[in-house]
Amino acid sequence: MMKFLKYTFGLSIIISLAIACSGGSDDGGSPPEPKNNAPFKVTSLTFPENDMLCTSNTVEFTWDAATDPDGDKVSYILEISKDSGFGAIDQSVNSNTSSKSVSLEKGIIYFWRVKVKDTKGLESEYSSVFRFYTEGEPLTNHIPFPAQPINPADGETINGNSITLEWEATDIDNDPLTYDVYVDTVNPPTQKIGDNQSNNTTNVNLNPASTYYWKIVTKDDKDGQSIGQVWSFMTN
């Protein structure tokens, strides 16, 4: 009997040690995969430069290379549009390097931007947007670039009963520019509040709790003109 008890006691110790060393039951799980992070965005567009006249309609786009915080390989998506808001994209091309040659139409104002994609499918934010002009057939004049808003920002909410609208525009030929200013509570705006004005600001009285739409038509002294896109702002 004593021999049997010793055997049973010894077997219990062995089983207990085996359980303790095994760390309990194995649920078959595996450690979670580390979180993947999106690549960093392109910080600098290098060619074509902003407001540049490209003498060839085959353009070699270049930008600073980007990296990925996880060390993943990255590629780039180059987007080119005639619309500064990229509502319609004329070309979207992929590149494994920080450059890409693209053939475009002549005599067109284009906007371009780049985003980065890693091998796991995550994408960065877009780079800044640059605009350029492809030279057309020999001309004595180029139309101005469309105006861009300075104040207020598109979609901004305004406090107060008045605002000073401000914008900027450039012309490759450095022609003097004038502006027609449209502001309205309907889209597109049809009420012209400024006609052939030379300054790039205008004051507007506002009603509360309203949405306003505005656009600028930029004209040079050789009958060239560009119609800007419609921007909006709201009042409290």
TrEMBL record:
Protein name: Fibronectin type-III domain-containing protein
Record carries keyword Repressor: no
Coiled-coil region(s): none
UniProt entry keywords in alphabetical sequence: Signal
UniProt domain Fibronectin type-III: residue ranges: 41-137
Record InterPro entries: FN3_dom, FN3_sf, Ig-like_fold
Organism of origin: Allotamlana fucoidanivorans
Signal peptide: 1-20
Top-level taxon in the UniProt lineage: Bacteria
